[in-house]
Amino acid sequence: MYNAVVNELIGSLGLIKPELALLVTFVVVIIADLIFKNNKVNLGLSILGTIVSGIFLIGMSGTNTSAFANLIAVDPFSEFFKYLILISTLIVLVMSEFSEELHNRDVWMGEYYMLVLGMALGMFLLAGATNLIMIYLALETMSMSSYILSGYTKEIKRSSEASLKYVIFGSLSSGIMIYGMSILFGMTGSLDLYAIQSYLAANGFFQPAIFISGLMVIAGFAYKISAVPFHFWTPDVYEGSPITITAYLSVASKAAGFAVLVRFIKLTFFDAAGSSDESWIMMNSIPWDMVLAVLAVATMTLGNIVALWQSNVKRMLAYSSIAHAGYLLMGIVVMTNTGLMSILVYFFFYLLMNFGAFIVVMLFAHKIGSEEMDDYEGIGYQAPVLASLLTLFLVSLTGLPPTAGFIGKLVLFGAVLDSGWYWLAVIGVLNSVVSLYYYAKVVRNMWLRKVDNGKGTLKFSIQSQALVMVLGIPTLVFGLFFGPIMRWAEHSVRIFLGN
Amino acid sequence: MLIDYSVVLVYLIVGVLFVAAGIVTAALIRPSRPNPRKNSTYESGEEPIGSPWIQFNNRFYIIALAFIIFDVELVMLFPWATAFKEIGWFAFWGMIVFAFILALGLAYDWAKGLLDWEKPNPQIPSLDELVITREQYLDELKKKEQTGN
Q1: In sequence order, what are the residues at sequence separation of 6 or more whose Cβ sits closer than 8 angstroms to the Cβ of residue A115?
Q2: Residue A108 C-alpha, separation from nearest chain B C-alpha, in angstroms
Q3: Which of helix, strand or coil describes residue A65?
Q4: Could you give the ipTM of this predicted complex?
Q5: Residue A91 · residue A47 · CB < 8 Å
Q6: CB distance from A423 to chain B under 8 Å?
Q7: Is residue A166 part of a domain?
Q8: What pTM was estimated for this model as a whole?
Q9: Rounded distance between C-alpha atoms, residue A318 and residue A268, angstroms
Q10: Nearest CB to A34: which of B86, B91, B111?
Q11: Listed residue (A19, A89, A29, A97) closest to A57, CA to CA
Q12: What are the Cα distances from residue A312, in Å, to A79, A281, A455?
């Protein structure tokens, strides 16, 4: 009786090789930590495992099936996000090596690497999940690891406070999400997103119930991507966590959240046939696009306006990442090929700029001991290389040419205007203009204020500078040669929307 | 469709009423004659000694946490055991991997010292502090006279 199920399971094992590689790395790091008790070995094994997982991922390019009987989808869309998550994990692992916050405090790093790998595994599964329970499981795997990681330096009170706030808000939002999922399950009798869609398309449904349950599930995802009004955890958690984890949360966690948000909305609330390059073909006129548009506007506006008042660079970057989530939500509102492609392209460039900015802030914080903007005065003359790279990243975050951030915003606003959402694009552009102020404030402090605090030239290690350059040069290059990225994103999205 | 849930509503109301009626009626009918013996805490028939609020060790928390994990593993083992014979080797290796990961967790707990039962170490004062010489005693007496008895 079980033969078919077992054959399906064995056949699907080959499809999740990257996740299996991450799992094996996780187990190997635990064993190595118990035997060798050496942090360098742990770091080396984690990086090796991530690279092996990347090799498997490259070997699987082009697959477009679903594994384990519609539990996980292995398609180019999830593959794109898995690449983003892998690159983020590698950068975070290398960045952790340079972080004095973690190494000066006599904190054992073995569990840190294990948890980062666990979080990466959860994000991998989330990027491909097409079953309600799989979504919840992967989301919780990712969240639990990040709860612990955000409070990793527990002697610093702010870090423990950040972790506690994150746990409480996160558990609440997970509870709301699973309640919405249970209502959805109760109405359709199935957990599989494809089956839910065909049931809803074929039979009638009780409209308020679908609306409320869908809203609750989207609320759970919106928590992860820090959309307003579910963003309350973001500034405190980003400010309190070790800066490596802040960077990881702001990029990879958001990427996985967006992947599952797009997949959920697309697979559940759209008619199966007739999804062409047009605007939303909604189910029974529930205006999901208006809901998401309101969310996008609120997120952008709040993120940009509150960032204006910030004097702590880390907190400012936290609010700026909320604003960027708002721009990305605009891309979901226009659920066309170009809209989704623009999200992917924007995410790729956002990874480069955000990680670059966070790494430079971390390196500066080591030398001058502070993360306040006022303490950045004159640092342009003390650390010219890193300060100019930070300037590049901030310019790219604003969206000025010739950086990659400009291309991302160009593609995004182009897609929004193409679909006729003029008012949304206008609000987006106005918000970008407002964001110039708080990014330029840091630049002004670095270069246009000369302060003689007697420190002289600040020296940074070659490896940390090399890491920042590895992120900075593509930011500049992709601002001019962005063709390959666009083609890759379009390829990832076309097959997904064709489903 | 909403009308189908009327059964649930009736069930809810009757349940609440059932409990409330019992409690309220009892409170109205029964006599109320408290005395100190009746109000004191129950301690298996003995006289209650000390405060009922004791501080219990948080070593128990670690044990409870580990118990939950392995209890859930046990719950996963039961359905596996029923279908094991039909599936054969795949089920065997699958469960070996699952149990191995959990056993690894136990080994991690053990090696990191999380299962150590830490005994509290009371500070017993040494003999030097308890016994003083005659000179020290007279010095202390003099100091007490100077500061005013």
Answers
A1: A145, A148, A149, A152
A2: 11
A3: strand
A4: 0.82
A5: no
A6: no
A7: no
A8: 0.85
A9: 31
A10: B111
A11: A19
A12: 36, 44, 21
Q: Quick count: other Cβ atoms within 10 Å of Cβ A121? A: 25
pLDDT-derived band of residue B120, with 50, 70 and 90 as boundaries? Answer: low
Give B103's contacts in chain A (Cβ within 8 Å). none
Answer whether A74's CB lies under 8 Å from A495's CB: no
Q: Closest residue of A to B110, CA-based? A: A34
Q: Quick check: A272 pLDDT over 60?
A: no
* One-character DSSP codes across A167-184: HHHHHHHHHHHHHHHHHH
CA torsion sign, A121 to A124 to A127 to A131?
Answer: negative
- Mutation site, A1, A3, A5, A6, interface B, largest B CB count within 10 A: A6
Closest CA to A331 of A300, A366, A369, A375: A300
Strand partners for A66 = A73
Query: A393 is written with which tokens?
Result: 């990243």
Whether pLDDT at B56 is above 80: no
* φ, ψ dihedrals at B57, nearest 5°: -65, 145
Q: Is the dihedral of CA A150, A81, A109, A31 positive or negative?
A: positive
Q: Do A9 and B90 touch (CB under 8 A)?
A: yes
B60 touches chain A (CB under 8 A): no
Q: Does A2 touch chain B (CB under 8 A)?
A: yes
Testing the interface with A: which of B8, B84, B87, B114 to mutate, by most A Cβ within 10 A?
B87
In a domain, A390, yes or no: yes
Residue of chain A minimizing CA distance to B84: A2
> Residue A84 has which token pair?
């983003």
**Residues of the domain holding A491:** 287-499
pLDDT of A498 strictly over 60: no
| Per-range mean pLDDT, top range of A271-280, A448-457, B140-149 | B140-149
Report how far residue A336's alpha carbon sits from residue A163's, in angstroms, rounded to the nearest whole number.
Answer: 38
Q: Is A278 domain-assigned?
A: no
Q: What per-residue confidence (pLDDT) applies to A280?
A: 47
Query: Where in chain B does DSSP place strands (E)?
Result: none
Please answer yes or no on whether A27 and B90 come within 8 Å at the CB atom: no
Count of domains forming chain A? 1
Expressed in angstroms, the distance from the first to the final Cα of chain B is 89
Residue A219 · residue A259 · CB < 8 Å: no
Q: Is A330 inside any structural domain?
A: yes
Q: Do A6 and B90 touch (CB under 8 A)?
A: yes
A484 preceded by cis ω (within 30°)? no
Q: Which structure tokens are listed for A404?
A: 């990659």
Q: DSSP assignment of A241-278, as one string?
A: S-HHHHHHIIIIIHHHHHHHHHHHHHHHSB-SS---SS
Chain B residues whose CB is inside 8 A of the A27 CB are 101, 104
Nearest CA in chain A to B102: A27
Report the chain B residue with the minimal C-alpha distance to residue A33: B108
DSSP string, A320-363: HHHHHHHHHHHHHHS-SHHHHHHHHHHHHHHHHHHHHHHHHHHH
Q: What is the pLDDT of residues A189-217, one digit of tens each?
A: 889 988 888 888 777 677 788 888 889 99
Beta-carbon separation of A9 and B104 below 8 A: no
Q: Can you tell me the mean pLDDT for A53-63?
A: 90
